[in-house]
Amino acid sequence: MAINDRIILGIDPGTIVMGYGLVHIQNNKPALLSLGIIQLDKYEEHADRLKKIFERVTGLIEEYKPDELAIEAPFFGKNVQSMLKLGRAQGVAIAAALARQVPMTEYSPKKIKLSITGNGNASKEQVAAMLENLLNFKYESKYLDATDALGAAVCHYFQNKTAGSGAKKSYSGWDSFLKDNPKRKA
Fold first, then answer.
1. Is 45 part of the annotated catalytic residue set?
2. Beta strands at 29-39 and 104-107: parallel, antiparallel or unpaired
C-alpha cells in the first residue's frame, strides 16, 4: 500500500478505558474508519485487563489491517503505580501490533495536541472538536478517549503527510538547499 493509501490505527492506552481510532488515507486525505473505546473497569485483575487489551488490539488489526500504529505515550503524573499500569497497557498494545508486523510510532500527548489544534496545551474537547471538523463526524463527550486515539492517528498522518509523495526533498548540504530556496538567504 502506498504512503498515500494506508490505514493508521491510533491508540490512547488506559487500564480503565482504552481509546482507539482508525483513519484511512486515500489520495493524501484522511477519512474516519472507526473509533471507540474498550471498557476495562469490569475486569478486577490487572492481568485480565492487559489480556483484553491484547485481544482487542489484535482483533482491530485483523479486522482493519492497519499499515501503522500511532500510540500516545504515557505522561508522568503524581502516582507512580498508575504510570506503571499505564505503561503496561501501552506495552501490551504495542506488542499486539508488533506481533502482527504493524510498525508503531509513539507520540507525546503534547505533540498530538499541537499537531491537531496548533496548541500543545489544548483540552481533550478542543482536540475532539478539531477532529470532528477535519474528519466530518460528530463526537460524544463520553468518547474522549476514542478521539484522543484518533488524534494520535491523525497526528501520525500529519507527521508523515509528505513522505514518499515527492513534496518533501532532502538536501546534501546548505549549498543545495540555498540553490533551491534563494529567498531563504539572510
1. no
2. unpaired
What is each CA distance from 96 to 22, 92, 180, in whole angstroms?
16, 6, 44
Domain coverage including residue 140: 5-184
SS3 48: helix
CATH number for the domain including 48? Answer: 3.30.420.10
Q: Over its length of 186 residues, how does the chain's per-residue pLDDT go in tens digits?
A: 455 689 999 999 999 999 999 999 999 899 999 999 999 999 999 999 999 999 999 999 999 999 999 999 987 667 788 888 889 999 999 999 999 999 999 999 999 999 999 999 999 999 999 999 999 998 877 789 999 999 999 999 999 875 443 333 444 455 555 566 566 554
Q: Which residue's C-alpha cell is 513522505?
A: 163
Spatial contact of 146 and 13, defined as CB atoms under 8 Å apart: no
Residue 143 near residue 36 (C-beta atoms within 8 A): yes
- Number of domain units in the chain: 1
Query: Does 145 participate in catalysis according to the annotation?
Result: yes
Instruction: Pick the catalytic residue from 48, 62, 63, 72.
Output: 72
Q: Which position among 5, 145, 148, 175 bears the catalytic label?
A: 145
d(CA 131, CA 136): 8
Please say whether the beta carbons of 86 and 12 come within 8 A. Answer: no
H helix runs in the chain, sequence order: 46-64, 80-99, 109-117, 124-135, 144-159, 174-180
Mark whether 72 is an active-site residue: yes
